[in-house]
Each structure stands twice: as structure tokens, then as C-alpha cells.
């Protein structure tokens, strides 16, 4: 296959591990013309705040922005479903010319009267930043009139990348943190940050901590409630699952309330066990917690180990490509795939930082392609070059995998099957086994050796 001609501006965002000097560029705006897989700032804020189930989520902008992000996460709720409704001020030409503040005010008043939310988030989109609506002023007015928090989310899409949307969401959440009462919270307590309960994972993880003897004050933001967020400053420890999305909130809470934090992952046997052990170790003045944790981990692994061994027999030697939002997720995926006997030949993220890529370099084998903010053309070419058998990504990567004639595993926020915790590892292994060993791939042209060796390029 002919060599892929990478855009000059992206040359330092692609690295072949061990083959060339490591100098990874990242945390930059997407290169014009590269057709980035990233989403916008507004989308970044929505995926973080969306799971707050008893809040009103109003998109201030054209109807397309609300349509684009409707039901954007699988975020399950044990109660209210208000977050699953999509509300928009539906700005049209008249408001673009004369301003949309009046329409925003009327929309908020009507929606709060109708749905009685515990709080309201108002998302500013690109057009709002251009026409200069004073969203903050409208929110303050409505909050005073209705007696609930009405919080502006400054997520104008042109301001940066999806990662800037995460920051906007953390800033919005921080306006709630510390405004509630903390009576009755155990000294052995935590908040779980960056767990979004896509397929019920938050419930599984909370159960683990309950069995360990640790109180979960708030999950931010899976199956979350406004009142729990308000009192989250009463917890003794913040446990950050998705560091790309929620680390900034942990840092803000540490600075203002003195709450320490640790970074964890609940994906894969190794990382899930380590996460639970790290929390237990934090409360070392309660040795019964560590003992309960050891028993829990031993029992859960014993349940799934026989099936994992069976899957590994057929998966050993298979190759995987990974492209996900945050690099921290990629760390766990590499470990989980190795547990199943698979190697990673391509790995990348949309929002990784320099330290993330340094860790990936150390984790990956020689020759593994590491990419930052990649695009469909690059991903397709490297998948063929490396003869991958599996692609792990999100909804935008699924068509790439199927066009390449290889298995696909959805590890993004649209899925419905839980992949966290010990049972999640079983679900993941089962899904990987089913897709990689499916007989359908023998009929895909790209699996033909002649196709793989041809000089035909996707360029």
C-alpha cells in the first residue's frame, strides 16, 4: 500500500513507537481540512452535564445544536427522565439580528413552570457568542424569580475543542458544589467524578463501595441529582474516573474545600481492582475496609475467570486498534486486551495530553502507531497497514471498522451495555470475542490478502 501523506501540520501528532524519536504534539486545535473526529466545545459540555437527571437542559441557539446532542449519552436514571428531553430556544434570523435574550427568558420561565426542575443549565452555542446575548444576566434574573439555580454554560463551539467544553461543564457544576448541607455524611465517604452511568455502571460501582463500607455522596454526573451535587463538598475523597472530563472539577474542589483526589479506572480486572484498593488504602485507619475489598475482588474475579480463559484461547495473537476520547481510557483498554492475549497496533485519543502520550509510549509495543486527534483517512490506512482484527472506538469510528471488514467494539457514550467493573470486563471480553471471531469477515474484500498487498490507496 502506498504511504499515507499526512498533512504537514499533523506530522508531529503521529508517532511510530520505538521507530522514531518521540515528540508528540497535542492539546491543539484541529488542523483545518483534516476532518477531525472531535466534537465541538458545546458537545463536550453536554456529554458531561447531560446525565444530571432532575435538571433542565436548555440549548440557547439554533435547533440543530439541540438535535445534534439529543439523548447524546446512554445515561440511565433511577428516577427522573427530564434530562432525556431536548429543549432549545430555536434561534432564527429575527433573534440573530435583534438578539435572543427575550426568547431565552420566556423559554426558561415556561419550562421551569411546566417541569419544576431542581436546577437549569443554559448552554451558549456559537451563534450566541457571535451576537453577544448576555446569557449570565438572563440566568440571574430567572434564578431570582424562580428560586432555583439557573446556570449559564459558556460552551460556544468556536472557542476551542471538546476538551474546553469539559472545562465549561466543570465550571457550571462548581457553581452548585458547596451550596448544600453536609450533615450525616460519613467520614468514610467519596464522590465519583467522571462516571456517567451509560449502561448502569455507576450502580455497579456504588454497590462495590457499599460492600466495602464506603459511602458514595455523589456521582458526577451519572444518575445524578442536583441536591447530591450541592452537598458533594462533604465527602472525604474525590475519585476521578474520566480525568479528561472531570479532573478540573477535582482540582477546584481540592483548592476550595481541601478534598484530595485520586485518578482511577473501572475498566478491566487489573484497573478495577486497583481502583478499589486505592480507595481502601486512603481510609487506612479503617482496616476492615481493606479486608472487605480483598474479599470482594477475589469473589468477583472467581466468577468471570473461567469464561475469560475460554475467550483468550481464540483471541490470543489477534490485533486491535483503539481510538477513544480520553487517553486514560486507552490505558485500561490496552491492559484489558493484553489480558485476553491481544496486542494493540494502533492507539489514539481526541483529548490526550503530553503525559498521557508519554505513558502510552511506555505501554505500547515497538511499531505501534500512536495518534492524536486523528481522522478517518489516517485511521483507515493504519488499520489496513497493521492488519488489525478489531477496532475499538465510538459511533463515528464504527463505519470505518465495517468498511475495513474487521470487528468493532463500541466503547463510547452511545452504548447500552455496561463495560465497567468485573462484570463489565466479562461483557467486554464477550463482545470482543463475538465480533473478532465472527465468520462474516471472511467475505469482506479487505480481508483478502491480495487486497491487503495491493498498491491501491485510500487517498
TrEMBL record:
Q: Name one Pfam family in it.
A: Oxidored_nitro
Q: Per its database record, what is this protein's job? A: This protein may play a role in the biosynthesis of the prosthetic group of nitrogenase (FeMo cofactor).
Query: What name goes with this protein?
Result: Nitrogenase iron-molybdenum cofactor biosynthesis protein NifE
Q: Which UniProt key words apply to this protein?
A: Nitrogen fixation
Task: Give the family from UniProt.
Answer: Belongs to the NifD/NifK/NifE/NifN family.
Classification via InterPro entries: Nase/OxRdtase_comp1 (IPR000510), Nase_comp1_CS (IPR000318), NifE (IPR005973), NifE-like (IPR049939)
Which SUPFAM superfamilies does the record match to this protein? Helical backbone' metal receptor
Nitrogenase/oxidoreductase component domain residues are: 40-436
Give the metabolic or biological pathway.
Cofactor biosynthesis; Fe-Mo cofactor biosynthesis
